[in-house]
Amino acid sequence: MCNFTKLKKLKYLQILAMSLILGLAGCGSDNDANKSPPPAEADTVAPVITITGESAVSVNQNEKYIEQGATATDNVDGTITVVITGDVNTSITGEYLVTYTATDTAGNAATAIRTVTVVSVTLSGTAAAGAAIVGTVTVKGANGKVKSSPIAANGSYAVNVTGLVAPYRLRAQGTVGGRYYKLHSYAAAANVGGTVNITPFSDLIIANTAQQLAENYFQSDSFTELSSAALTAQEGALQAKLQNVFDALGLDAAINLLSSSFKADHSGLDAALDLIRISVNEENNIATITNTLDGSSITDDITQSDDNDAVIEVDSEKVGNAVTDRVAIASLFANFSAAFNDGLPEEDDITGYFATEFLSNDADLALFLTDFLTDPLLIGVSFNSLAITELDSANGSAVVGFNVAYNGHPSFETEQWYVAKDSSLGWQFLGDQQIVDLDFIHYHCNDYDGTDSIEGSCGINTSFSDNDFNNNGTQGMPILSAAISVISPQNGSVKDTFFLGTPINSTEGLIYDENNQAYSGDWRAFGTNLGEIDASKFSVGDKIKYRFYTNNLDLSDASMPTVSGQATAVYSRELNYLPVTTGLYPTAPQTTLDNLNNFTLGNDLVVEWTLADDTQIDEVLVEITDNQDNHVLSIWALPASITDTSITFNAAMFDQELLGNDQFQPELGYQLLIRIYAKGNALPQYYSTDYRASVAAQASFACNYESGWNDSADNGLGAPINPNSFNDFKQVIASCGNTVAITKSEVLGHSWLNEGERVEFYDTGSATQAAPSTGKFIEGSEQIDFIWYIETIGDHTFVVQETNSDLDNDLPTGFWIREAYAVIAVTTGQAGETIYSAVIYAEQSNYSDLDRDTNSDGEIWNNSYIIESLQ
């Protein structure tokens, strides 16, 4: 209850009455709980969003963008959910917005935005020199680190420069139409994501700006930055020298020789690269800029920045005609290639592209078209890096160098064809006009056994064949030999000469090895010994000259071959790059070795590989030789892509190759070879590795059984393909009806002859193992001393020959051979001569144990001998 003071004065009654009313309003009572609370204030405050990380970030192109998210708090609801919207496509450069939204329970919303910029980390442009360069672009950062990438068939390149520090030095290395180029350019940080061309023009601009050879500037370990102003000045100076060319071509005045986009298609800026050739003398630093249409030229001292008065003069009409013809010739190749886009065309669809006098690699038009129109590998064929030289628009002739790509696989071998302009049909193919099928000299390193630690060797490959004697102008006489000379471009001196000849029973011209006095296939190793070629003698610009003859090599002095008569044909090419003399060999993993060792015909064979740096896969060869080392089949396969790491040779491929081959008897055993070929990304040199396995003969020892022999095993000492035991040998003899009981008197004083080999048995001992007699093996100039004796084991009689390094000091130290001859038949020849047919069991120290009776490491073979008395 409230207590009020009694008020006596009446004049205060009204005031007190008002006070009483107010006082009662402020006093509670027992009924207060039933009254409603006053209304709450409305929530009008939005949440607060905090972006995790920076509100503006950058991410490299093609790298993953990682969203860091955001958090939101509200004055009423506390922590609340953030909704994120917006996509970031890192494959496309540009700005992207990521929006963060938070809404509280009262409906108050807040947003925040992160800006994500996708930045390019790629230097890209065109690498060309009148045509796309077939090779590689290398970028070197200011920190000395480098990255490389192959140049595409159209001349474009792209190198991710992540990890490199700007500014960048660039080099394009490779070939154009068979000519080797090493060209340079330059890029600042601002050029990343833009266009940076690598051409003869850029190379000269860099050289003039750095006032040294562009190659030296690229290679230098002490990097000096080139100023933007200096580059701009030298780009402008070169434009001034070439302005007449650009005007004749109608090029935009705003063109920039370093950074304007262009295509290597013989138009626009590429047309200027066709018309202008730039060469730099490394001795005096003088660049020569030549108009290829008329041979006129000006010079430019790259060490002087102000010698810019001279300009190239051109005939605008000739320039226009040349551009028109170059584009037409390029279209000829493009249209021919397009005919193979979706399959093999009909002959009528492509005949018009060829002149009637077409001749290429000894094939006339009819044979060439037959080959081209029946080879499924040519589906999708393309012709790249077209370099058009010796263009004579007035007379309608030119030479075109180009590279062929199969299934997108560019070949490093440059073809050179003539083209001619028909008055009604336009430009047509003439081919290379060569009367032989010539495999022009190229460099190759091969590791003969990828499973051992012995380094491979490097050298050259070259060979030829004459398949059509009627186009030689020799009244049907074949081309049988060639002399190959390496000629200096400076003084015309001959640096080296070696010879190709045609062996007996061969149709192919192969390299003659003066040291071994035999043909060495298409191979000549680098070295300074007789029979080798000295790699140090090669220089860029050397002329490799082939002279072909109808006479075969004169080998009367086997260490000094000669050839006589007039050369029927002479072909030359310029050497555009130097060889690499150490191998960058591909390797096969254990899975491939297992596949090889477990292979049998009727099954697939999967081959995998790992490549060395700066190389790409080229092709894979699988070869089978029989148990006598005779060639049975070769299957070449191109991977579908240069990024592939395996290829499958299916069983049907082997079956197809063996069709009609009734002489091959796989049950007698055979040898399988895998050779994996790689090639350099920049230099067109080949690297290959061999892997071999022997497929054992089936367990049947018929009278004609042989172990098979591999001449190249054990570094040329040789070894049996399928080693056998002496017990196996006795089973073979039993299949033959056992041995003839040859006696000492029937052997001594006689010679056994077989195809140039003579085995002489002398009467110098008892012909027993305890007191053996002596003899001599003779083949040409080779003579080996041995001992011999008669040995009887059960019902078998053997003539045993043994030799070692103690008996004949021409043999390698510790080397020995033991051969047991089982004569299984004695017959009489047509001339009355006695003939022994024999089965032989041979053991040799590099593959055999001395214990003949317990080991299975010998070779079984058979032979026939004419028996003569010693004179």
UniProtKB/TrEMBL annotation:
Where does the signal peptide begin and end?
Answer: 1-27
Q: Pfam families under this entry?
A: Bact_surface_Ig-like
Origin superkingdom: Bacteria
Segments forming domain Pesticidal crystal protein Cry22Aa Ig-like: 49-118
Q: Which residue ranges traverse the bilayer? A: none
Keyword entries, A-Z = Signal
Q: Which InterPro entries match?
A: Cry22Aa_Ig-like, Ig-like_fold
Q: Which Gene3D superfamilies match?
A: Immunoglobulins
What's this protein's name? DUF5011 domain-containing protein
Which species is this record about? Answer: Pseudoalteromonas arctica
